[in-house]
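Try this one yourself first.
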């Protein structure tokens, strides 16, 4: 991006959509389509070859899915901004993409202006989410932001208090794992420890104890 032009790699397994988007972006001043890829493995290879500023990545692709391709590209070239452009509105997919290193998440119904805005934002180091996505991200992390200090349930570790706060906010184990970038097994183990330390029998009782202490609100 030395001359101000944003070089983009497009990865999507649907040729009509991929070629149409390439044509669309190629007509936008300041954006150059450096390469295209039809699957995740090809996207990783093309990213290494062309060193783009931004990768626009589909999630569901053959050979290697977009999440794993994102993880590999982000690990090899941290400066590359990756925008997921997908049909999936699932929270699990959104947070898996973020965990893998994506800095943007747009739905395929997005218009040209929104896609261009997302590419430009990510190229300049910002994060971008489509309508409704930003609110969901904020909602997920609001429980984390409200995590208590060690004066609340001092027998718990900071991580256990963080997880308990999200449990009290009504998050499922899968949602907690995505929000905190943990494995589901780690979340389960922490919740078991929380139950034991608080001497509660189940999740419902833990939620009551936590909310009585001001967590999860």
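Now uncover the answer:
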């Amino acid at each position: 991006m030395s001359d101000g032009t944003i070089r983009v790699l497009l990865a999507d397994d649907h040729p009509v959509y991929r070629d149409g988007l390439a044509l669309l972006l190629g007509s936008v001043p300041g954006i150059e389509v450096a390469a295209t890829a039809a699957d995740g493995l090809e996207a990783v290879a093309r990213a290494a070859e062309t060193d783009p500023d931004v990768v626009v990545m589909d999630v569901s692709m053959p050979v290697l899915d977009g999440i794993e391709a994102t993880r590999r590209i982000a690990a090899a070239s941290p400066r590359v901004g990756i925008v997921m452009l997908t049909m999936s509105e699932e929270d699990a997919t959104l947070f898996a993409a973020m965990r893998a290193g994506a800095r943007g998440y747009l739905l395929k119904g997005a218009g040209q202006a929104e896609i261009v805005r997302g590419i430009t934002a990510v190229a300049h180091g910002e994060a971008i989410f489509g309508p409704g996505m930003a609110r969901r991200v904020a909602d997920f992390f609001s429980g984390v932001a409200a995590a208590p200090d060690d004066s609340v349930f001092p027998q718990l570790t900071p991580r256990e208090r963080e997880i308990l706060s999200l449990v009290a906010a009504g998050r499922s184990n899968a949602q907690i794992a995505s929000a905190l970038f943990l494995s589901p097994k780690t979340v389960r183990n922490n919740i078991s420890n929380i139950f034991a330390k608080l001497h509660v029998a189940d999740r419902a009782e833990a939620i009551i104890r936590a909310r009585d202490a001001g967590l999860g609100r």
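Discussion: The mean pLDDT is 87. Residues 163 and 176 are 7 Å apart (CA to CA).
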